[in-house]
Inverse folding.
């Protein structure tokens, strides 16, 4: 999971980054509002930690701009302001949670974990880079282009995306996509993966499905 930290207090930003990375998150930092907004709209992140009082562009302005374009990136607001009207302003602009400085890093981590769990249960979408798979409507897009897959191809892609960053063997794919009693050869999986690659990788960059020779396949974000 990738988290963007937009905070102009360098020591605090670095402390948050260390805590997040020790917990297994990938992070990027921006120290002003304009840089943070640019990263938020050009890179793929799973969550945004956003200070309100920022140079060049405030956190409220960033939040409003993101929500105005229907960007639903989960946002945790940080601020030294603790008055009710300030919390209300942050939540009204589209933030998902709000923390007042100073705060315990353990509480921030707990809030992030709770928020990401809630978001994951609310969405039917799987996203890797510019590839999106809708498990409810059986729709796949890459770079906003519709991609039409067979039911087997869809199931293989869904399984790879749900296990993003992990090597998945051909045997695991067979067990997940076909019935356990089916007599499916590894070459059958290879053929389906080739067809899948032709559809989601051949016309796009970078290629997302990797072959790990002797082990299986893996899909992961390419930045």
């Amino acid at each position: 999971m990738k988290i963007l930290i937009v905070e102009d207090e360098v020591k605090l930003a670095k402390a948050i980054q260390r805590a997040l990375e020790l917990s297994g998150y990938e992070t990027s930092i921006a120290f002003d509002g304009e840089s943070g907004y640019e990263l938020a709209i050009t890179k793929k992140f799973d969550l945004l930690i956003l200070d309100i009082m920022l140079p060049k562009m405030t956190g409220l302005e960033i939040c409003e701009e993101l929500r105005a374009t229907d960007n639903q990136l989960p946002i945790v607001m940080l601020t030294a302001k603790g008055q009710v009207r300030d919390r209300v302003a942050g939540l009204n602009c589209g933030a998902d949670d709000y923390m007042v400085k100073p705060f315990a890093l353990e509480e921030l981590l707990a809030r992030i974990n709770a928020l990401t769990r809630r978001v994951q249960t609310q969405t039917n979408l799987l996203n890797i880079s510019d590839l999106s798979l809708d498990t409810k409507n059986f729709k796949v897009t890459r770079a906003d282009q519709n991609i039409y897959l067979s039911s087997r191809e869809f199931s293989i892609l869904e399984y790879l995306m749900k296990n993003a960053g992990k090597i998945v063997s051909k045997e695991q794919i067979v067990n997940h996509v076909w019935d356990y009693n089916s007599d499916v050869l590894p070459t059958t999986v290879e053929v389906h993966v080739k067809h899948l690659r032709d559809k989601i990788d051949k016309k796009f960059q970078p290629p997302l499905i990797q072959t790990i020779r002797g082990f299986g396949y893996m899909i992961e974000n390419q930045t």
